[in-house]
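Lab notebook, entry 354. We have the chain sequence and a SMILES string for nicotinamide-adenine-dinucleotide, and the next step in the workflow is to get a structural model of the bound complex before anyone spends time on docking refinements. Request logged below.

Task: model protein plus nicotinamide-adenine-dinucleotide, output structure tokens.
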Amino acid sequence: MEHVRVNLGSKSYSIHIGHGILESAATHIAELGHTKVALISHSEIAGLHGKKLVSGLRAAGVSVLQINLADGELAKNFSEVERALSEMARECFDRSSLVVALGGGAVGDAAGFIASLYMRGIPYVQIPTTLLAMVDSSVGGKTAVNLKEGKNLVGAFHQPILVLADPDVLGTLPLRHLQASVAEIIKTGVIRDPSLLTMMARGVPEDWSHAIKRCCEIKASIVEADEFETTGLRMLLNFGHTIGHAVEACAGYSELMHGEAISIGMVGSIFLSVRHAGLSPAEAKQITDAMALHSLPLCWNKLDTDSVMEVLMRDKKFASGKIRFVLAGNIGDAYVSEKVTLDDIREAVEVCKG
Ligand SMILES: NC(=O)c1ccc[n+]([C@@H]2O[C@H](COP(=O)([O-])OP(=O)(O)OC[C@H]3O[C@@H](n4cnc5c(N)ncnc54)[C@H](O)[C@@H]3O)[C@@H](O)[C@H]2O)c1
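Result returned:
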């Protein structure tokens, strides 16, 4: 079993990573001492991985309310959030109750948001079930729902109190989802750790635990230094996301998976990094080769540049009118640049069309 600690004073928490940890999740959660738990998931995930957790919690005397959200991005929706909050209210949940998120990044983001809202904030535990959620979204406390105007436009910073990541649950994850998740691992390598990129360039690891641990360590160190994304450091985690989120929105949150859209967005960021940050073409190729090895898309020919630019302008990162774009000068060394212009980004989007 691997452990990573996120040090945030009174909001500090542990991430436990280990094969079979889901088997003992009920014990870990019961030990937290909450008598009422809302297990927020999706019906299929709950069916595959939630049964033992529910029976274990009930056997430990914890009352469990099971709430299943719509699948994927459809979970990150106000009507789903409201439905869950109402169910909790009807069951007389109070400040001493706990939310447990069992699912991928979408369930985790929505459940975290629900926990942040109920009675102005109750604690929650993340049990990520996709590789993407294990290496990225379950850590750091960013919770969100989408608006039709853009992704993650509404949310709250609300840190979990515990994260339990069991790589065994990845056994039921469809291959395309597993591959899409690798985009966030490659992103973490590009911004902070060349060895992660080297690991991904070797192919699919026999055991994901090391990649999960390394990504959690890196994300923890960034979140510890810039929890609320005020200094710019946390923005580094958005490498590839500015264009990627716009691409995802233009694809209607359905045709491309989140990681695939981020992969396409990273191609744009790599193009701009070569142009403005001195990233060598050899390193750029090293990154895109690793992405291709994991079957990540490097372009999408259905992209409409004007639509992408329109969505992109509503991105939170453009809200102040100043364009702050994450570039990498070398693999493992990313920074926030203010030199990138809208015309540059338009060109990068053209590159993403292939
Ligand atoms: N909060 C953050 O810091 C952060 C960071 C990165 C991404 N995100 C968000 O994460 C979301 C994407 O998350 P995702 O890639 O995990 O996708 P997802 O949550 O949409 O899950 C993908 C699909 O896999 C299914 N699934 C999940 N676990 C499974 C399992 N073990 N077996 C079988 N099927 C399973 C889900 O039901 C869904 O259909 C996006 O909304 C993105 O914005 C958030």
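Notes for the group: The mean pLDDT is 95. Worth checking against the assay data. Residues 42, 44-45, 48, 71-73, 76, 103-107, 109, 129-130, 132-133, 136-137, 140, 142, 152, 169, 172-173, 177, 181, 258-259 surround nicotinamide-adenine-dinucleotide (CB under 6 Å).
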